């Protein structure tokens, strides 16, 4: 088990589909950050699932389809504040909490996100 990636330990693609569905149900209706997600919602969810697959140690799914993630550059056209990052993390925390895995795995999974969320911040206001 210790040689398995976090992607595998949380349940692989099935878990990530559940996570992204739960997460974006929250995000798309969030009063602060829903403005950041106005394009094709199914495409947004699919890109996130592919990215998370790779981010959590699974197959290089995002890179195979879209090239190197370059997440900060891809998010630069959007105004993202610290408040946005906190709201994003709150939605992710709630979505992670709904996964049918142990509290330890939920904590390990969630702890992968704060650094990346705050790295996307590009505006003070």
Please provide a written account of the structure:
With 125 residues, the chain is mainly alpha-helical. It has one domain: Orthogonal Bundle (Globin-like), CATH 1.10.490.10. The protein contains eight helices and no strands. It has helices at residues 6-10, 12-27, 41-55, 61-66, 71-75, 82-97, 103-110, 114-119. The termini are far apart. Keywords: Heme, Iron, Metal-binding, Transport.
Note the topology:
Layout: H1 6-10, H2 12-27, H3 41-55, H4 61-66, H5 71-75, H6 82-97, H7 103-110, H8 114-119
Helix pairs in contact: 2-3, 2-6, 6-7
Proportion of residues in helical segments: 55-70%
Largest sheet: none
Number of domains: 1
Count of alpha/pi helices:
8
Broad shape = globular
Q: What's the rounded overall pLDDT mean?
A: 94
CATH architecture: Orthogonal Bundle
The Cα radius of gyration reads: 14 Å
- Unreliable residue stretches: none
Short synopsis of the structure:
By secondary structure, the chain is mainly alpha-helical. The protein has helices at residues 6-10, 12-27, 41-55, 61-66, 71-75, 82-97, 103-110, 114-119. The chain is globular.
Keyphrases for this structure?
125 residues, mainly alpha, Globin-like, 8 helices, heme, Group 2 truncated hemoglobin YjbI, metal-binding
């Amino acid at each position: 088990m210790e040689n398995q990636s976090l992607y595998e330990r949380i349940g692989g693609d099935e878990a990530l589909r559940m996570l992204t569905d739960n997460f974006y149900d929250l995000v798309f209706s969030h009063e602060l950050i829903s403005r950041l997600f106005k394009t094709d919602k199914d495409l947004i969810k699919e890109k996130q699932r592919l990215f998370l697959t790779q981010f959590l140690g699974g197959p290089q799914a995002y890179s195979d389809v879209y090239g190197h993630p370059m997440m900060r550059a891809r998010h630069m056209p959007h105004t993202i504040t610290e408040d946005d990052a906190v709201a994003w993390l709150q939605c992710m925390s709630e979505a992670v909490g709904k996964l049918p895995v142990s509290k330890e795995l939920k904590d390990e999974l969630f702890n992968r996100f704060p650094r990346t969320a705050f790295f996307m911040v590009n505006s003070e206001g």
